Amino acid sequence: MRVYTTYGKFQNEMNEHFKRTGIKLQFTEMMARMQEKGMMDSVPYRVNVPDEYLGLNDEEFDKIIDTIPIAFEMHDDSNKEVIEDRMIPKFHDVFTIRHPRLTRRFSHVHNYFELNFVIKGNALFYFQEECHVMNEGEICIVAPGSNHDFLIDDETSIVYTVCIRKSTFDSTFSTIMSHQDLISSFFRQILRNEERSNYLMLFTGNNMECNILLRKLVVESAKRDEYSNGCCISIINLLFCNLLRNYSKTMAFYNYEIGTDFSLVLQYIQHNYQNITLSSLAEFFHYSEPHLCTLIKQNTGENFTDVIKKLRMRDAINYLINTNLKINEIAEQVGYNSADHFSRVFRQTYKCSPAEYRKANKTESPFVPFSTE
């Protein structure tokens, strides 16, 4: 039998129980306790979110969340593997909740992607039994099969948790992950590698756009009508695009086999590709060249030379289309010693010269709607 309460009623019971006993409970333990006490209802509460909710401050919007219903069904919780059908409603691909506060440690794994975003305050993120304090504006994306836990140890911090089915991630968001920039390539590689436990961490600061998108996800997840799932997929697409566009350079990750934050190496390559060599990179990060080659191949799917060429060609195209720089000036900007060398590599890559590419793709004048000229 499915029973219901609200975020607010549930959290009040959690807070009061901890104050009274000093003991923290798991989410399911408190829900079962509330059911035994006759505090649950057999029909869902009506979702009533005011139209102006995006303009509210965090505390005001949190009071709106307190009125949103939570559904609960009894399960055996001795198994530390949490399957997606328990967290994500049937026929939904994305589901967002406000993470419960004052819960007990319970390291677990699940078969879906989990995204945790600290809106206000801080939280404790446990991964492979290591603890990381996450502060306001930090976001972590936990890959399926990773042993972890996420705790809020106070009554005022606000964290939103987004659950995404793995099958949905692989299909719906594949276009985002197929971008040709270095960080997107890395993002795709480690999130899809089922043999390693991994997470991605990004640092957005107090970003209003991310906050707004997450509020929309919470509200759409609560509606549960025939449009809500499509809306959630569209919103999470916007969120991922925002993160990749604005915060990919802040990314950190965990990789047990590498044992270090390899994203620092990738960021260094991206910022210095014009004049970097494999030997100078290896010396800077204290790797042997063969080991560094292996790590680059594992984490990007490409060798060092191809990574550098891709970065150079990406920026060259940007200069050709969006600037009036001469070909020799573009060659210098992207790290080639001569315009001839640059042109040869460009022609091998795109089957045309830089000048021909510019002529075929550059917009000479901006589009003006309703122009009669």
What does this structure look like?
The protein has 373 residues and is of the alpha+beta class. It folds into 2 domains: 3-255, Sandwich (Jelly Rolls); 269-361, Orthogonal Bundle (Arc Repressor Mutant, subunit A), CATH 1.10.10. The protein has 16 helices and 13 strands. It has helices spanning 7-21, 27-36, 58-65, 84-87, 166-172, 174-177, 182-192, 208-223, 228-247, 263-272, 278-285, 289-300, 304-322, 327-333, 339-350, 354-361; strands spanning 3-6, 69-72, 81-82, 94-98, 109-110, 112-120, 122-127, 130-135, 138-142, 148-151, 158-165, 198-203, 252-255. A 6-stranded antiparallel beta sheet has the order 4-11-6-9-12-13. Strands 8-7-10 form a 3-stranded antiparallel beta sheet, with no helix packed on it. Strand 7 (122-127) and strand 8 (130-135) form a beta hairpin. It is elongated, with a radius of gyration of 25 Å. It starts with a strand and ends in a 12-residue tail after the last helix.
Which terms summarize this structure?
alpha+beta, elongated, Jelly Rolls, 373 residues, 6-stranded antiparallel β-sheet, 3-stranded antiparallel β-sheet, 2 domains, Arc Repressor Mutant, subunit A
List the helices and strands and how they pair.
Layout: E1 3-6, H1 7-21, H2 27-36, H3 58-65, E2 69-72, E3 81-82, H4 84-87, E4 94-98, E5 109-110, E6 112-120, E7 122-127, E8 130-135, E9 138-142, E10 148-151, E11 158-165, H5 166-172, H6 174-177, H7 182-192, E12 198-203, H8 208-223, H9 228-247, E13 252-255, H10 263-272, H11 278-285, H12 289-300, H13 304-322, H14 327-333, H15 339-350, H16 354-361
Parallel strand pairs: 3-5
Antiparallel strand pairs: 1-2, 4-11, 6-9, 6-11, 7-8, 7-10, 9-12, 12-13
